[in-house]
Amino acid sequence: MGVNFEEKLRNQQYDDLWQEYCGFLDLDIGGYMQIQRRLMEEQIGLWSASALGKKLLDGGRPRTVEEFRRAVPLTTFEDYADVLLQKRSEMLPAEPVVWIQTTWEGGKHPIKLAPYTRGMLDVFKRNMVAALMLATSKRPGQFSIAPCDRTLYGLAPLPYVTGLFPLMLDEELPLRFLPPVDEAVRMSFGERNKKGFALGLQNGLDLFFGLSSVISYITTSFTAGGGKSKTNLLQYSPAMVCRYLAASYRAKRDGRTVQPKDIFRLKALICAGTDTSYYKPSLEEAWGVRPMEIYAGTEPTLMATETWARNGLVFFPDNCFYEFIPEGEMYKNLDDRTYQPKTCLMDELTANQNYEVVITVLKGGAFVRYRVGDVFRCLSTGGEQEGARLPRFTFVDRIPTVIDIGGFTRITEDTISDVVRLSGLGIHDWAARKEYSADNRPYLHLYLEIASGSLEVMAVSKQLLREHLSVYFKYFDNDYNDLKKMLGIEPLQITILRTGTFDAFRRATGQEVRRINESSFRISELLRFQERDYPLERGVVTP
Amino acid sequence: MIQIPFLYVPIAGVCCYTILLLALAAAKKNRLIRSFMNLLGCYLLWTAGSMLMRLQFYPGFELWYEVSILSLFCIPLLLYNFIFNFVDAKGLFLKRLWTGLTAATLVLTHFEVFLKRPVFIDLGNGTGVFRYDTGWEIAIPCVLFFFIILSSAVMLFKSRELTSAWTRPIVVGICFLFLGNVLSIVPGNIFPWDTLSGIINAGYMFYALYRKRLFRLTLLVSRGTMLAASAVLVSVLFAYWAGPLERMILDYFPQVRGYQTLIIAILFAGIILASYKLLYRVMDNLFVRDTQVRAQHLKEFSLRASKSLNLDEILRELVEVVKDTVSVEKVYVCLEDSGGETYRTAYSASPLDVKSFSLQAANPCIQWFQEHDGCLMLRDFQRSVLYKSMWESEKQMLANMHIECIVPLKSDSDLVGILLLSTKPKKGGYSFDDIAFLESVQSVASIAIKNANLYKKAYDESRIDPLTGLLNRKSFYEKLGEEFERCKNHSIALVILNLDDFKLFNQLYGNREGDAALQHVARIISTTLGSNGSAARYGGKEFALILPFFDTMKALNLAADIKGQIANMNRGVEGESLKVITLSGGVCVYPYAASNLAQLISNADMAVYNAKRSGKNKIIAYSLESPLSQAPMESPLIEGGRYEEYAPTIFALTAAIDAKDHYTFNHSQNVAEYSTALARAIGLNADHVKIIYEAALLHDIGKIGIPEHILTKPGRLTPEEYSIMQKHVENSVAMIRHLPSLDYVIPAAIGHHERWDGKGYPRRIAGEDIPLSARCLAIADAFDAMTTARSYKPAMPVEFAIAEIERGAGTQFDPKLAPVFVELVRSGKVLPKEAAPAK
Asked: Is residue A530 part of a domain?
């Protein structure tokens, strides 16, 4: 049996470990693409021979990466739903070991399932450890992980992808999860976070993993509660009592609240999820360590990590084959669904451009040329000094047709249409946009106008609309419910436009307002538009 | 012996160092542990040497002085070495330099270059002091040691792990050491601070190593170690306390003079006994020995396994107890499948293990257990004769999984399963204790598994539909009742899904394909439902879904989702493309459309009926306003007055064929007459007879679609023409399908050219897979075809036709029906319409 991370750590083979797990960061783009292409060739062979492959290829038999890109159209989950939702393992390129679940689209499709092969899990595991090493490192080759590091873990258990993290890590080195994984699976998300944090307060914390929104909520609740917890000080370890008392004294002396950094000495703070970049500064301030961002998803597995420099995400070379749809192509496709957008590869990127990522899962995975639905900005195409030889990215957001708040929801035009329809409120027209509050918290901003006939017969106020619509959002999407309950976020803001604004805008400009994520410029135009005396616009009195 | 103050400090030091050394002697050693043991050894020599020097122990303080001073001078270098290894430092220059200089210092010290040997000055009353003559020379080694310790500190601070919890104890320990040495040279001090700080330092270092998980404490502190340590402790105490105790006894109890030695001996014997007992207790409670742990684990497992009848729970407990006690990482349980031919993985230690493998019952590893009851070590097995018959793939599979030990789960000589264990980590083999433990566990587990299997089988038989794995009808009602009670104050939806034309599907593709389709549908239903509710097989082709807390919209959405998936399920799969399966569904939700359980069920049924009546392939929610729901429940099949509704359709169709091909019209009439006679003769009920009658009228209706030149061709048909001719069966079905009220005749119509031996067409189904009605039609059809004149042949004599039918019994025709028909003809109950006279 191979020697695992823990054993090498015990034998003090630090340089070996670094090379083994994080060595890919020394690759140049040529070496990186060589890995990508070679693994992709293996995957093309496996996938094309499977019943799933034959079904989607429709008789084609591509051999090279280029042929494959020509032969296979870009895919979405719809293309796999019939096979994957029924767990038809016999149709897949390789035998899945575990099926990972996620929500698909609120109200319409309950769940998505993704098969994970043992090969995928092994890559996942190594990359997970690499991310952990990088999270504790401040320079190349340096890291600080010990078996039994106390790890607080603000993520969902199996069958969600985040549930793989503790299981995967356990195969390499035993961390002490707070609360222990077997207890945690029996708790609700909220309970788990509370219990974990209480245990952390008693004995200290070394690592903290979580969705940025969740970490942020825990942090704010802690700070707002004056650093107090319901646990008894007698249950604390002596060291924690000292730290706690010292922190309280210092905070009182300086006239501020106790911050987590006063009490905890974190080795690493690892965060993920939508809007992470908005949460990062406040998290760093509160915890005294620079958060490290990773990017993982149900379909792409653990896809990218930041390095010791914390200056952007680097994509792992061996879990997926990456293609990128340039932003222009993506919008072209949004306007015309039949248009097949062009893609480029990792070595064909341009810095400071946004790209929608397209993945082919390697190692016998099911998804090929799959649109994950996330947009990245390429910060640099690499080729720089040590540790920055590969392209670096920042996660921008979901694709423009989806609104995701705090990594919890997946609101689409269909969702909002259903909500508006079901609410029975006389909403004539609407447009929704994800916006950020003054303290960088995301929310869903719904611009709507009431049908003229409804105003006389219906009670309308902003508060009423918001509460009424919220009820239906919750009905459709349990995760939306969690936003308020677990993150304390008030996710819905409403602006009521003067009746007729949308129609008048259309008539005047000859253009439609995008229902989801219209540009801020167009929205402000729309808002300005209602100020005008539009019936006289263009010199014509409109009905 | 000289009395010295605070003698217990060096004694404690000696004891501590000895215990630590003994403990570490049991550990697996690496560079780091060895360097720590060197350091400990040095501390021990220094402390013991200086103690014995002050006690002026045999052979004299000079020797002990030398031991203590030399080992003291070694300490900085050994400390450096330890830290060097601890932080995994690189670069050997400094290490070599310090080693060289220390070696030189030791040699010079031996020759008293830096420090002269002390002189003992007896102060009388049993006390004395050592006088040291110090000169400037002593500064030389001091400076050297300062630099060595400084470079250790620098190394420690530069290390990557400065912030980690591992190095902190070492830093703290060194601080103590430093502080202790400073305190000990404070003028007027007589307390041995330096010795005390040495003990604290050693403790911290030991803790640092423990934190680094270089060894397991429970394994180190064995009973032997503790007993040896206690013996040393008590002996030293005895040596130290014997004198004072004797004096105390003589002072307070002068009357026992002469017996004091005996009293002391008895006292110490008691102390030894008590301390032994105490340590025994401590060991048992704190460091329970392996065998006791095993016994405890086995006991707990037995208790839990015997209490449970849940197979999954038992397997989980089994894997847990084996994994924890034997310390292996991978444990797989494979259980015998129902056929007894394969052992499939049922559980493993991690949810991420590959579980798709299985072992055939014929696998030599499994065969081995027919004659053996014990564990099978693969290494030993490789040397057996049986191993020669292992397939390469079987060997490879076990090798890939790193399997080293296979434990049989044998109950009353039945091998209910096997336990596969991987290689033990760190090259530790399976010990005798491991094997003994595994054998005890297996005897408990195999009985528990066997019982749980029996229970599960009985449970499943009573509750689960064997074909689909869903709840059966009986348990559906129970479950619905339970859920209804639970959701009484909220809402609960009942969805009934009925597959359309499923009888036809069975006729088209045979029962096996039909069963596969039902399984597929069941799988779609259960995966879509997930944990949102329960599903049951409500009838032959009918499924019911219980959806707690659902409203009508959600239930309709879910049903529509399932319907969509089922419609797609036969599309694009490899091989033959099968007919699309559609379904009619009914949804009823309490409290909106039903006010009690009985209404919920009957209204959902009614909604299904409405869906069927209004053209199938749709899902309807029961609503009180729907006019259809007001309609009385009627049998959709032919019953009494309903016949009038569709009789005109049959006549219209037969008229159509008459217009095109008069022969076929007459033929259909004849076949109808013959087949109904046969059906009556075999005792079918009136409904069935009527179906056969109508099927016979319509069985060749598809010939409308066959070109006239083929229908009326005088000679033999070419192969192409013949295959076109064969299409008439499918044509018939395609036409009748559009008449929902007549689809029940399809099975008969589609099967009338099938043969008992499976060589017919279009589906090549055989034996009783061919519907009874079709088998009747086949005989009647052949009889009429032979006894009537056709464009390509004259009419055959009845005798000839009868002989042909008799000859074809068992190959072309049903062997039971053929003689009945022949008898009907012979007895004159069936009269041929036109037949050639017998020759």
From this structure: yes
